[in-house]
Amino acid sequence: MKSAVVVFPGSNCDRDLAVAFEQVGGTKPALIWHADTELPAGLDVIGVPGGFSYGDYLRSGAMAARSPVMRAVADAAGHGVPVIGICNGFQILTEAGLLPGVLMRNAELAYICRPVDLVVENSRSLFTSGYAAGERITVPIAHHDGNYQADADTLDRLDGDGRVAFRYADRCNGSARNIAGIVNADGNVLGMMPHPERALEPAHGNTDGRRLFEGLFEKVGV
Amino acid sequence: MKARVFVTLKSGVLDPQGKAIHHALEGLGFAGVNDVRAGKLIELDLAEGTPHAAIEDMCRKLLANTVIENFRIEQAD
Q1: Of the residues A13, A95, A121, A197, which is catalytic?
Q2: What predicted TM-score, i.e. pTM, was given to this entire model?
Q3: Which one of B7, B10, B68 makes the best mutation probe of the A interface by having the most chain A beta carbons within 10 Å?
Q4: pLDDT tens column, A51-66
Q5: Is A195 part of the annotated catalytic residue set?
Q6: What ipTM was assigned to the predicted interfaces of this complex?
Q7: Alpha-carbon distance A210 to A139, whole Å?
Q8: Which of A218, A45, A57 minimizes the C-alpha distance to B42?
Q9: B12-46 pLDDT tens trace
Q10: Contacts of B14 in chain A (CB under 8 A)
């Protein structure tokens, strides 16, 4: 299995995501610095981690989305390489135009850090095959800007095409239609605010996040 | 030359920060505030002769997220 985790100044979940890739996929991912212009060849999976890239200046994810490495990530995504963006990674993927919509300040303005219940909307995607459709799982969130918004047409399209991967079981940050994670039209790019890499092993108190990585790595044939 | 870029949320986009400011103004006893929308002002110091189109390009590519934000450019010489 050949994977990479992109690291920006201010990323702080890069290590956790790398551990998840290594534990489930069996090999250590390459850590790619934001200023790099190329990714290793033949990657099976790319991770865009959580954190506060570039201090969340201008808008969360805005600076990282324009960094050199993201052009390489967009290119790889265009060639079908699976890309998973978690939390700040989701914000970066929307700012980079790889996913539709935006993540705005939480509706109640508060930073929310707690485990939340999610509903797995479908189990057909690359990223949700480890779950049953409609299954309820618990995964931690930790964000200030997780309020997913898009215009009504985009939301209808996401719903109609089965591109909502995860929904909050209860209202949590003001997200339109309680969206917690979506995939792109080709199904190889996932963005989600909750942190599956923080629910990986019993010591975390919960292992519901592990099956995301297990399902993904099984699907990519690793 | 200088340019000022005003970035504002499109109408209809919920503005939690504007709402909080509104609420705080009411808390201070200011009556008659119907609504508050918060935005950003970005000041650019540019090379002389920078075309307006280039500033617009900067807005579209970085300064504003046009999914939810509008921008307005004010050029001063």
Answers
A1: A197
A2: 0.94
A3: B68
A4: 999 999 999 999 999 9
A5: yes
A6: 0.84
A7: 10
A8: A57
A9: 888 888 999 999 999 999 999 999 999 999 999 99
A10: 104, 107, 149, 174
